Amino acid sequence: MKKTLKSIFLETNFKDIIKDTFIITLGAFIYAFGVNYFFVANKMADGGVAGICTILYFLFGFNISTSYFLINIPLIILGYKLIGGKFIIKTFYGTAMTSLAFRILKDFQGPMNDKIMASLFGGLLIGIGLGSIFMAGGSSGGSDILVKILNKYFDISVGKAFLVLDFIVLSLLGFLFGKEVFMYTLVGLFTSTKVIDVIQEGLDTSKSVGIISNKSDEIKDKIMEELDRGTTLLIAKGGYKGDPKEIVYCIVSRYEVSSVKKIVKNIDRNAFIFISEVSEVLGEGFKNIDNN
User: What is the CA radius of gyration of the chain?
Assistant: First the structure.
């Protein structure tokens, strides 16, 4: 059953509300500054609704702040009807703050001769701003709402939905203003996407390590003794002979991978090791889950 706005508010910790509100506000101003100072000033555009508003500004002189807010109103109403929840509440606030930021920062523009630098630094700030808003559980509105709806009701992946919507806006931009504008904007959007990923996932990437060995007990004891890392034993079966196997599984920092390999090498040179990257780890020995 869909929750009412009142019930959602009552279930939310007041401290979290203050924290998220501050982060969304700060993110909105960083985002608007990046769009205005680097993109608009150098005739580039963001993706989604912000990109449409920028195109309208280039063609007809429409105020980005006003058009951004007006386009988002029906999207927010539609999102509340179809999605509901805290996401839409925070999206409405994020949209209002982003629109206000565009209004306040409209004269902060920095035309540059080097368009590549403009697209890179613009993408950097846009990524920091949007990443902060996403980290607080909100969004700046626009295509974020459409993506949520497409994902929920049509089972279209978030990545594909963003790609399609941004490609439509970029294609329109390239058709109206030329292929160079298209390419510079694409560089900026690629940069912003990567920065958003870093903010969402963090720089402290860890590694998951799996070790298949007949000496699993010795290996897991040595890992816990030398690295002070917890381990888990997974029961498996060999695919060729059907022999029972034990997999030592653990999460370590990227600086500890070589130590794990050295431990395994000293105990069982015939062991099989597989290592993969983990974007974020919360819990004992890593990030405090209460701070995220």
Answer: 24
CA 72 to centroid of chain Cα atoms = 21
Sign of the torsion angle spanned by Cα atoms 22, 24, 26, 28: negative
Please give the average per-residue pLDDT across 216-223, as a whole number.
92
Contacts of 155 (CB under 8 A, 6+ apart): none
Gap between the Cα atoms of 58 and 206, Å rounded: 45
The confidence score (pLDDT) of residue 86 equals 66
User: Residues of the chain with pLDDT > 90: what percent?
Assistant: 30
State residue 36's pLDDT score: 93
Question: For residue 246, what are the β-bridge partners?
Answer: 235
Architecture of domain 206-291: 2-Layer Sandwich (3.30)
Produce one character per residue of 148-181: b if its CB has 16 or more CB atoms within 10 Å, e if not: bbbbeeeeeeeeebbeebbeebbeebbeebeeeb
Reported as half-sphere exposure (CB side, CA atoms, 13 A), residue 213 has a value of: 25
Kindly tell me if the per-residue pLDDT of 215 is higher than 80: yes
pTM above 0.90, yes or no: no
Q: In what order do the strands lie in the sheet with 206-212?
A: 232-237, 244-253, 206-212, 272-278
Q: Exposed, middle or buried, 99 (CB in 10 Å: 0-12/13-18/19+)?
A: buried
Q: What is the DSSP string of 219-258?
A: HHHHHHHHH----EEEEEE-TTT--EEEEEEEEEEGGGHH
In this predicted structure, the answer to whether residue 60 has a pLDDT above a threshold of 70 is yes
Q: Alpha helix (H) ranges present in the chain?
A: 5-11, 14-34, 48-60, 64-82, 85-104, 115-135, 143-154, 158-177, 179-201, 216-227, 257-267
Domain boundaries, the chain: 5-201, 206-291
- Choose among 284, 220, 227: nearest CA to 249: 220
Q: What type of residue is 229?
A: R
Could you give the count of Cα atoms lying within 13 Å of 253 in the half-sphere of its Cβ?
Answer: 10
